[in-house]
Amino acid sequence: MYTRIRDLREDSDISQARIAEIFGMHTTQYRRYELGESDIPLGVAIKLAKHYNVSLDYIAGLSRKKIPLNKD
Questions:
Q1: Is the alpha carbon torsion for 59, 62, 68, 70 positive or negative?
Q2: Do 28 and 17 meet the contact criterion of CB atoms below 8 Å apart?
Q3: Where residue 43 falls among pLDDT bands split at 50, 70, 90?
Q4: Cα(56)–Cα(66) distance, rounded to whole angstroms?
Q5: 44 Cβ partners below 8 Å, 6+ apart?
Q6: Class of domain 2-60
Q7: 66 and 55 in contact (C-beta within 8 Å)?
Q8: Extents of the domains making up the chain
Q9: Distance of alpha carbon 49 from alpha carbon 69, whole angstroms
């Protein structure tokens, strides 16, 4: 899970500081998510999935496919 969010962020050319700002959290907390030092709360995982337009299964490492979310 943790490498997935790092890879998504890097593929989008966004810094840790910027993504933390987007989600209204301290950079240190976001860095802990990427390093696996802190579990990612479900609400944050949902925001990440929406931001990167991928499924929660992809974020969680349950799928290798970046199936985009339906825009319901």
A1: negative
A2: no
A3: very high
A4: 9
A5: 23, 25, 33
A6: mainly alpha
A7: yes
A8: 2-60
A9: 8
Six-digit token pair at 55? 């499924």
Residue in this structure with the two tokens 């929406």, named with its chain if needed: 50
Of 57, 59, 62, 56, residue with least CA distance to 7:
59
What phi and psi values does residue 19 have, to the nearest 5 degrees? -70, -35
Using 50, 70 and 90 to split pLDDT, how confident is the model at 3? confident
Token output for 38: 């802190």
Kindly report the pTM of this predicted structure: 0.84
Q: Backbone phi, then psi, for 8, in 5-degree steps?
A: -60, -45
Residue 57 and residue 14: Cα distance in Å, rounded? 22
- For residue 66, give the amino acid letter: K
Spatial distance between the Cα atoms of 60 and 42, rounded to a whole number of angstroms: 10
